[in-house]
Amino acid sequence: MTEHAMLEERPMGGGKNIFSDKTAKGWRHELGRLNELVTLLRRCNHALFHASDEHYLLREVCMALVAIGGYRLCWVGYGEDNPGRTIRVVASWGDGDGYLESVKVSWGDTGPGTESPTATAIRTGRPYRRQHLNRREGAFTAPWQAAAQARGFGSVLSLPLEVVEGQRPMGGFTFYAEDPEGFSDAEVALLSDLATDVASGIAHLHERLERSRIEEALRVAEARYSGVLENTGTGTILIENDEFIRFCNATFEKMTGYTREEILGRKKWSDFVVPEDAKRMENYHVWRRTEPGRAPSVYECQMIDREGRVKDILMKVGMVEGTLMSVASFMDITEAKRARNLLHEREAQLTAIVNHLPGPVFVRDVKGRILFANRRMVEQTGYNPEGEYCYNIFYQRRAPCADCPVSRVFAGETVRKEVFFPKEGRWYEVVYAPIAAFDGTVGRIQAVFMDITERKSAESALMVREENLREENRRLRSAIRDRVSFGGLVGKSQVMQDVYERILKAAGGNSSVIIYGESGTGKELTARAIHDMSDRVRGPFVPVNCGAINENLAESAFFGHKKGAFTGADRDRQGYMAAADGGTLFLDEIGEIPLSMQIKLLRALDGAGFTPVGGTEVLRPDIRVIAATNRNLYDLLRENRMREDFFYRIHIVPIRLPALRDRKEDLPLLIDHFFKKYGVGRVLPPVTGKLLEAFSSHAWPGNVRELQNAIQRYLSLDRLDFLGEREGAPEEERGDMALVSRVEDYEKKLIVEALHRHHWHRENAADSLGIHRKTLFTKMKKYGLLTDGA
Fold first, then answer.
1. Mapping DSSP to helix (H, G, I), strand (E, B) and coil, where does residue 658 land?
2. Beta strands 310-319 and 415-421: pairing type?
3. CA angle in degrees (0–180, nearest 5) for 377-382-386
4. Are 510 and 624 in contact, with CB atoms under 8 Å apart?
5. Is residue 762 within a helix (H) or strand (E), and if so which, with residue range?
């Protein structure tokens, strides 16, 4: 018997032994029948815990009970949770003659069929026994009893199928016997044990079936997902209800540093989560299985690998349908998060920069609506203009400005425009820049305002000044055309006017200048004029006679040297290039610089600097180079006596000075100039026609320098002497001259002729005369051939 009291329609026997009225033979028959029931119970109990088909099992139990117990009908029904609370027939066996189909059974509190034995046992949770079904009690007979009487059933026993004590039974086990006094207490006790075992067996079977179903679902899920999960590109795992990992792909192994054998069935997925996130992850795990929808499916956390490295992870988790297992993917977003944090930092920096710009900055959409305004614009307008139209804010207009360049900007062009705001009385330069979306289309424009009011005022003043300067320049150029001298040069001829124009252009820049001209044409005067008219006029002008520099000492001469750098270097000496810092370096006779020195000068002039001889510090002076030569540099290039790169470095702005024989119309001006220069404090002789004719008929191979020397001699000796010959002296007077004087005159004449023949190239002239270059230099100095010319 169960612990519940048995419900009976009426007492039976008042506690009298149920076998007291039976004969010994009947007693032995009954005892044998009970033994058979016990044996049946054992068989059923074994079968219940090893069965795999619930309906087949229950039908076999019902069949055995009918066969061995001698019952007319045996059936099992489950109480449904539908609105009618019907009882579904699960299994039955016996001679019911359609009984179960003829009656309606419900385990509800009221209504048709609720008074039936099975409904009562399920509803009350206690056994229900009714004997003498053929007796009529009262005026009404229940439909189930009437149906039982019609089929000759004498008694009935219905037992609840309880799985958990205290909960509603899952169903009922009902037996109908032909004997009106069937189902003794001992038999009820045995059958109650059977019902308990059946209920436990069914529950065990349900559990095994559910477990099998889950395992099958897991196998199906693994088969379905394993190939896919292995190639997701993210670390992917399958998580059991107990948090242990059932499957992991190769990416997860690589992310954690553990092998698959070390993970599967041995580690929980929470083992890889940092302690700070562990509790949150465990809550998500439980909520996902008990409260669907509460836990997020995508979230961030941090995981730790085998080496203790912490990684930022984006997790995506979902349940496997029909199971308590979940699938989770781990995406390493450490670098992405670092980039995102950097982006946020840059955005904050950009916002700070934009907010501290002195002018307004805003972003607008296609319709002109302002989407962002910086702090300066908010301060200027007095409120936050976001959401309003730009043309209304700046111009108080109701429609877009006709001259607004936004159409060009939306086409991808950055536009600069100067605008004037009458309300403020200020000028702004506005930079309209397109803001492209990810697909490359331009949907927004950024406008940056820069207050240029002061600049516009300065520009206006500058324009007035520029116009004044332009007018002054026109007057100067007009005056130049009429001038007879310019920067120490004397001449009014057209060729000299062209030279003056070229000098002006050269003075306006900072490029290297090369001056071509025969000896005595005024190359150094031209270089000095360029320097004096340039912005380097406050700097030094350093002239260098390249032909007079010893090749062995060239580097020291140009770059300087330190004390002790070589024998005789008893003190530090500054070179030409350092001396010309901030000014102009004039390299006369540039063609005389040796090849070995050209490369060093080229490097220094190109900005690499130089180091003084014996020094370690690299100097980079700011100099402008003006070179001069009386030679054809292209001939030097062909003869490999000048480097091509050095040539192109100095040959940028060429100026060619004409020979005096090509501008004899300037002779009166030159004569007048030198008469005034050298005739100070003395009575000047008259310039006669014969004198002018003599000057005009001479070829002037020495150019202005020769003219200068001739006038000096004329003013000093009161006689005109060309190339050592005295103009107008009779032959007999010449014969009276001292031998030494005549030898000197002749030597001077030969030197001058050699210099003219070799375009005043001293080395070549010395070679042609068969003397050393220094000897030639000494004799030129003796005869006054080194005097600067104009």
1. coil
2. unpaired
3. 55
4. yes
5. helix 762-769
Task: Select from 574, 555, 589 the least CA-distant residue to 621.
Answer: 574
Name the one residue in this structure whose structure tokens are 């009166």.
668
Cβ-contact 702, 713 below 8 angstroms: no
> Residue holding tokens 């997860």?
252
| DSSP conformation letters of 189-246 | HHHHHHHHHHHHHHHHHHHHHHHHHHHHHHHHHHHHHHHHHTTSSSEEEEE-TTSBEE
What's the sign of the alpha-carbon dihedral 644, 649, 654, 659?
Answer: negative
The pLDDT of residue 790 is: 35
CA–CA dist 107, 104 (Å, integer) = 10
Residue 631, by phi and psi: left (phi above 0), alpha (psi -120 to 50) or beta? beta
Q: What are phi and psi of 427, to 5 degrees?
A: -100, 145
**Sheet holding 128-130: strands in order across?**
7-8, 128-130, 155-161, 171-177, 73-79, 87-94
Q: Give me the residue label for tokens 């600067």.
A: 788
pLDDT along the chain (790 residues), means of 10: 47 38 53 63 58 79 84 92 89 86 86 88 92 78 88 93 84 92 88 86 80 72 63 83 90 91 91 92 92 92 92 91 87 85 79 77 88 84 85 81 85 87 81 85 87 84 78 60 73 87 87 90 90 89 88 84 77 85 90 86 84 84 90 88 88 90 86 83 75 83 87 80 51 51 80 83 85 85 64
The encoded tokens of residue 664 equal 């004899």
**What pLDDT, on the 0 to 100 scale, is given for residue 225?**
61
CA atoms of 746 and 99, how far apart (whole Å):
166
One-letter amino acid for residue 745 of the chain? D
**How many Å apart are CA 138 and CA 128, to the nearest integer?**
20
- Cβ count near 723 (within 10 Å): 17
Q: Tell me the C-alpha distance between 184 and 12, whole Å.
A: 10
Describe the crossing of helices 185-229 and 24-48 by its angle, rounded to 10 degrees: 10
**SS3 (DSSP) at 562:** coil
Per-residue tokens: 243:
């948090």
* Alpha-carbon 786 to chain mean position: 69
SS3 297: coil
CA distance 315 to 335: 15
Q: H-helix or E-strand containing 585?
A: strand 584-588
Q: Taking Cα atoms as reference points, which of 451, 419, 413 lies closest to residue 432?
A: 413
Joined tokens for residue 548: 């007079």
Angstrom distance (rounded) from CA 340 to CA 334:
10
Provide the pLDDT for residue 724: 47
Strand, helix or coil at 182? coil
The distance from CA 662 to its chain's CA centroid, rounded to whole angstroms, is 69
What type of residue is 196? T
| Exposure class string for 161-180: b at 16+ Cβ within 10 A, else e | bbbeeeeebbbbbbbbbeee
548: Cβ–Cβ under 8 A, 6 or more apart, which residues? 777
Separation of alpha carbons 111 and 122, rounded Å: 15
User: What is the DSSP annotation of 58-117?
Assistant: HHHHHHHHHHHH--SEEEEEEE--STT-BEEEEEEEE--TTHHHHS--B-SSSSTTTTSH
The phi and psi torsions of 522 (rounded to 5 degrees) equal 100, 40
pLDDT value of residue 29: 56
Torsion sign, CA atoms 700, 705, 709, 714: positive
Angle between helices 494-507 and 523-533 (to 10 degrees): 40
- The CA-based dihedral angle spanning residues 188, 189, 193, 198, taken in that order and rounded to the nearest 10 degrees: 0
Q: CA 449: distance to chain centroid?
A: 27
Q: Which residues pair with 317 in a beta bridge?
A: 328
3-state helix, strand, coil in the chain (%, to 5): 45, 20, 35
Residue with tokens 């008893």: 570
Alpha-carbon span 711 to 700, nearest angstrom: 13
Residue among 452, 455, 517 nearest 655 (CA): 517
Residues 520, 705 contacting (CB under 8 angstroms): yes
